[in-house]
Structure to design on (554 residues):
């Protein structure tokens, strides 16, 4: 690969992808996700006669709160428990490469889970005349949001060798990010704008409305960078 | 490719797992790490392989400090950890491919090395099997194969033969001996015969410190206590047993004689003598002159087990 020092991301990524798709994990995740989202989308469309994906973009961030911790909880905790992390970290591999390889694998699973929902867009195009712009930017927002959740999940997974503990820790973290702009009425006035800016749902809503502002991009970019660094630092904790 | 360990200390809180260990391993040498469980063998190996840093002290592999040049050091080392952790959801070939790639091998070199390792480690029969379905012996071979996949100059093997049956143990030992000619090997074990069979040099570690360092023969010699001889004699019934005992006691250097058993004119004695004095010849000559028949004579040499026991239970 062209980048020295990143060349091990590939093998790690491929192993994780194979581990997701050679086991029931990927299929269970995809099927359950599609069943939940599909139920709400179709009931909106057929029962309420609304040809809109708004419900999808309202619902999916909630579903992510449970799904992404479930997908990421094993990424490092399992290797810690089985001892393979010792093998991995005594190979000439940087800790950052381990985190990134696993991150991209989980992100790919996320994309594979979201991809079938594009058929809703196709359905609506056939039935009505929706504006595909906000829908596509909504997907970009979901991928950003999911990416941040995955990085948090990897961080949580690096803290423990117990997958359930990893799940609960990452759930609490992503829940806090998600709820930040929903508790604004309880906080002193001075903190409102700060807290709102920290909230992931606030930025996601902007993007899902079709407004991709540089502030949102900076927010997601820096949050993603920060959480990935946090996960890498946590992996290096064994050296402290 | 030498390994130099200097003043290594590893503390967990107040507990010192390793307490100021220094040693050197030369190219082509097979060093055996011996010690009771919890003596610090595994911790030392984890530090050499860059898994964890020491509290203080340094490790150099081929002159490279393993804290500063960690990636380069890790490239030179093949490591088989204690419990032989493996990815149970992969088959042998996939796993070896993964290991090879993580060591920076690409393209045809990967398949080439995998073929060699499958052959060297005898994995033909199970190469498509999931690791979770393999017997312990095969898993151990897969562990060894991944440690050697990049043809490292240094092999660190933490209990490479644990859980194997006697035939497999012999195979793995032969393999390690073969490899040891060109590579620097450090292996830990608590099977003492293994050290005698494979290692050029032994380090005995006890409670985090080195208590002995030398070839197996050297250690046996150094820790040889009083010489002990077992003799079985057939004596005419006219000779009372007590008399035989006291006659043996007269031989030069003999410090004590004990009667172990006596039946039908055959008696067994244990003869103790000063360290380093072989009294077999004198005993034989006396038997001849007295008309006794020597049925058995056996000089007991201090075994590595005894050396180990002496050093680690004090």
């Amino acid at each position: 690969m062209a980048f020295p020092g990143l060349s091990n991301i590939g093998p790690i990524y491929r192993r994780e992808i194979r581990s997701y798709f050679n086991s029931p994990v990927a299929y269970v995740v995809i099927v359950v996700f599609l069943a939940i989202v599909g139920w709400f989308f179709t009931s909106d469309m057929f029962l309420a006669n609304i040809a809109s994906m708004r419900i999808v973009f309202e619902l999916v961030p909630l579903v992510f709160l449970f799904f992404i911790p479930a997908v990421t909880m094993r990424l490092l905790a399992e290797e810690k428990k089985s001892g393979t992390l010792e093998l991995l970290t005594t190979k000439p591999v940087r800790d950052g490469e381990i985190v990134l390889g696993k991150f991209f694998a989980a992100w790919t699973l996320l994309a594979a889970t979201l991809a079938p929902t594009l058929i809703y867009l196709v359905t609506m195009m056939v039935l009505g005349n929706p504006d595909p712009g906000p829908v596509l930017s909504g997907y970009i927002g979901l991928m950003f949001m999911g990416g941040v959740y995955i990085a948090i999940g990897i961080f949580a997974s690096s803290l423990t060798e117990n997958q359930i503990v990893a799940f609960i820790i990452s759930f609490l973290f992503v829940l806090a990010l998600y709820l930040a702009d929903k508790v604004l009425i309880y906080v002193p006035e001075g903190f409102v704008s700060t807290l709102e800016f920290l909230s992931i749902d606030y930025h996601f809503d902007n993007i899902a409305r079709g407004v991709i502002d540089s502030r949102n991009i900076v927010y997601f970019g820096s949050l993603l960078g920060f959480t990935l660094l946090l996960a890498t630092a946590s992996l290096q904790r064994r050296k402290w | 490719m030498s390994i130099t360990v200097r003043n290594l200390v590893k503390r967990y809180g107040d507990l010192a797992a390793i307490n100021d260990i220094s040693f050197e391993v030369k190219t082509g040498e097979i060093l055996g790490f011996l010690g009771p469980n919890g003596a610090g063998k595994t911790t030392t190996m984890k530090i050499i392989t860059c898994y964890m840093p020491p509290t203080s002290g340094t490790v150099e592999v081929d002159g490279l400090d393993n804290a500063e040049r960690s990636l380069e050091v890790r490239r030179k080392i093949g490591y088989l950890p204690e419990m032989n952790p493996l990815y149970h959801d992969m088959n042998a070939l996939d796993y070896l491919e993964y290991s090879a790639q993580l060591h920076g091998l690409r393209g045809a070199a990967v398949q080439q090395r995998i073929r060699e390792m499958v052959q060297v480690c005898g994995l033909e029969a199970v190469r498509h099997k999931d690791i979770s379905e393999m017997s312990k012996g095969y898993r151990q071979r897969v562990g060894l194969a991944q440690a050697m996949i990049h043809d490292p100059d240094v092999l660190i093997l933490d209990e490479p033969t644990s859980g194997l049956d006697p035939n497999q143990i012999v195979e793995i030992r032969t393999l390690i001996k073969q490899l040891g000619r060109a590579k620097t090997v450090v292996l830990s074990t608590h099977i003492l015969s293994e050290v005698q069979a494979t290692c050029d040099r032994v380090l005995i570690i006890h409670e985090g410190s080195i208590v002995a360092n030398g070839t197996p023969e050297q250690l046996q010699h150094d820790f040889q206590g009083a010489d002990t001889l077992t003799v079985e004699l057939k004596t005419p019934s006219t000779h009372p047993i007590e008399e035989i005992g006291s006659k043996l006691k007269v031989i030069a250097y003999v410090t004590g004689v004990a009667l172990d058993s006596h039946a039908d004119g055959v008696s067994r004695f244990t003869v103790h003598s000063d360290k380093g004095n072989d009294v077999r010849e004198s005993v034989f000559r006396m038997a001849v002159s007295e008309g006794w028949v020597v049925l058995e004579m056996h000089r007991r040499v201090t075994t590595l087990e005894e050396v180990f026991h002496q050093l680690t239970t004090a």
User: Anything to note?
Assistant: Chain B touches chain A at residues 46, 49-53, 71-72, 74-75, 77, 79, 81, 83, 85-90, 94, 98-99, 101-104, 146 (CB under 8 Å). The longest strand of chain B covers residues 15-25. Chain B has a mean pLDDT of 86. The CA atoms of residues 100 and 150 of chain B lie 6 Å apart.
